[in-house]
């Protein structure tokens, strides 16, 4: 059993490879909130016997120390490997792409996690080319500031899907009303720039939809520029922020294409780091 653990700022993702099973059934995924670290340790204590473990992510050191204190690692009597986060993420994404039959010689990889990290991945290497603090944590934090108090991420994403951005965001076509704009009218001229023009208050769902819009358009814009700089059009998007978040995926697809890029939101992409970690074993 090979287990890769990516302990991120928000979620701890686990990939479990049972090399004795057929390829279609060999790989399983699991996740825990990183804030509930003891749940991950308890799972490891119960399930990781005889396994080899590889840790990655910003909270890997803390998790590993706790797991070792609980004698998880020593109980399984194995080597425990630490894999650098960007290395694990890029390797795992390349592997998951291949599994989808989408192998690419080179591509841009945008990981929309708590924050957003952008990498240029080639067949023999990878390089971090940028990032932005606008990411999944922004969706949660800004929504809370705007008055959203409900529980789960799924609830938030569902509410955003019911929202209407047109009363919140200002499009280029709003400014160039009645005349042909020099850039596509569908581009956002100003995120939240339409709020003060409304006579009626903006509903929370509308605000949430625009928060997702802000994050989607920001990560897309930064990615398209980085891709252009590297001379590639292919942009692969990963990260738990896309989980159940059709609105974000739609925005990212539409906006990347509008700007000349070729987008793909990778299925199971949020497990790239965990997969990359276990592949190092
Ligand atoms: P980083 O890589 O920046 O350290 P991370 O690896 O924890 O962070 P991801 O797991 O890729 O990041 O994504 C975290 C984001 O996913 C959250 O900010 C939130 O927007 C979204 N998300 C999806 N599902 C959940 C969930 N069940 N609980 C909390 N956030 C969730
Ligand atoms: Mg991460």
TrEMBL record:
One Pfam family recorded for the sequence: Fumble
Coiled-coil segments: none
EC number, UniProt record: 2.7.1.33
Keyword list, A-Z: ATP-binding, Coenzyme A biosynthesis, Cytoplasm, Kinase, Nucleotide-binding, Transferase
EC main group: transferase
Gene Ontology MF: a single term: pantothenate kinase activity
Gene3D superfamilies: 3.30.420.40
Listed SUPFAM superfamilies: Actin-like ATPase domain
The name this protein goes by in its record: Type II pantothenate kinase
């Amino acid at each position: 059993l090979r287990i890769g653990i990516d302990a991120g700022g928000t979620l701890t993702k686990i990939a479990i490879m049972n090399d004795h099973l057929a390829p279609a059934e060999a790989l399983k995924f699991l996740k825990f909130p990183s804030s509930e670290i003891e749940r991950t340790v308890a799972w490891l204590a119960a399930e990781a016997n005889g396994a080899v473990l590889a840790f990655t992510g910003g909270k890997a050191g803390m998790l590993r120390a706790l797991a070792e204190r609980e004698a998880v690692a020593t109980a399984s009597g194995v080597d425990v490997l630490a894999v650098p986060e960007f290395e694990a993420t890029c390797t795992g994404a390349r592997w998951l792409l291949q599994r989808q039959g989408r192998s690419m010689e080179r591509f841009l990889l945008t990981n929309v996690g708590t924050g957003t990290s952008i990498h240029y991945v080639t067949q023999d290497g990878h390089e971090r080319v940028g990032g932005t603090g606008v990411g999944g944590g922004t969706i949660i934090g800004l929504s809370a500031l705007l008055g959203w108090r409900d529980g789960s991420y799924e609830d938030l994403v569902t509410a955003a899907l019911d929202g209407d951005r047109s009363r919140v965001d200002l499009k280029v076509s709003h400014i160039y009303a009645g005349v042909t704009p020099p850039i596509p009218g569908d581009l956002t001229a100003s995120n939240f720039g339409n709020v003060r023009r409304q006579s009626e208050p903006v509903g929370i769902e509308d605000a949430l939809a625009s928060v997702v819009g802000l994050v989607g358009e920001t990560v897309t814009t930064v990615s398209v520029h980085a891709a252009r700089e590297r001379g590639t059009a292919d942009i692969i998007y990963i990260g738990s922020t896309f989980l159940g978040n059709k609105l974000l995926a739609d925005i990212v697809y539409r906006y990347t294409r509008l700007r000349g890029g070729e987008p793909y939101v990778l299925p199971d992409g949020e497990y790239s780091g965990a997969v990359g970690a276990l592949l190092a074993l």
